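Subject: Protein record for review, amino acid sequence with backbone structure tokens
How to read it: Take the token row as a discrete description of the fold.
Enclosed: The protein record, placed directly beneath this head.
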Amino acid sequence: MTTDLREPLSAYAARLHATAGDRHHVASPLGAWLLLAVGATGATGPAAAQGAAAELARALGTDLPSAAEVARTLLDAPHPLVGSATALWHRSGLGDDGPAAWRAALPRTTEVGVLPNRAGLDAWAREHTLGLIDTFPLKVSPNVVFALASALATRVSWANPFDVADARALGADSPWAGELRRALRSPSHSHRCAIVSTARAGDVIVHAAPAQKTDGAGLVVLSVAASPQVPPAEVLAVAYDLSAGAADGAQPAGSRSLFDLPLGETPLWTLTEERVRTRARDGREERHTAVLPCWSARSDHDLTAPALGFPAVAATLATAMALPVEHFEARQTAVARFDRYGFEAAAVTGMFGLTSLPPEGVARTAELRFGHPYAVVAVATDARADGVTGPWHGLPVFSAWVAEPEEVPEA
């Protein structure tokens, strides 16, 4: 993968989380970004010169060929602990040639085909999110002409589960200390903690919980807290900045020595000192522990803001697929749970390209009633793909006169 995704993804995450503000929520900026990147594969030809493609590149934070390459690399080599899926569907009879022409450029794992019905979309969401999300974030209607979807999901156990602590350990200033009875305390080994000095948020506290590995691949859940006065956007940005180091197990840049901090309490930590036996080189040993609450969240995000790129990808795909798209819908459903023994999360991101419904008119419906004796003829059909009809075509095979009806069976 020649493009480093961390900086573009961090910038995209800032815009997505800004739409939720400071309310409790979970999201997958990567899930939304991947959806745009898959859509970018259809914008690398002549359509790429158009304004919508330029807007899409700005949203992705990189040029469209690079974004498409990143999507192919990630999706065609899935992570053992993070399930991923993407799909590009079109209304039957519309856009059939477009997806077929893109198969070489799309990730091999991207599902391409006819737009499923509502039940089919819900089933796709369940299948690709470990059952954590059971409904697709958008409702299909007759004016949907194409759909783009992505799903990400994980369910992991900690390499070492948390211990349990009295919730009062969250601190006297914590509003949660009086609401909860118990909280989580990091175990004595494998979890990593630090106090880190940052330019954006001042001193922050960091906890990293590693999951059990599979085939050498792992997952680390990083928790970062700053002073209550720091805006959520700044804390989220710092967490993204620290995420690369967390994956490597490295000590965060800017980590502070506990011997450079005053003893006592702050809103973020309590620092004490005691005499111990230690093998520390200078006789000064530093120990960290962390207390966190369990949490879970379910969020639904509207992704129609121009800065999130979905207006641009809708226009780009409409041009590439020659579809009569007049407007679009884009949403993401995300869920997560963090507890003593593990972490699970999933997100489904969906976008529909829509056309206007036909103008209103008058429709008549005839209900045909076979209420007296009638004839039945069973006719064979044999129309072949080359346009030639076989000898059975149009031949009545069975015929009947129905004069003795029967009751519908109970079974």
Observations:
- The mean pLDDT is 82.
- The longest strand covers residues 144-157.
- The two ends are 58 Å apart (CA to CA).
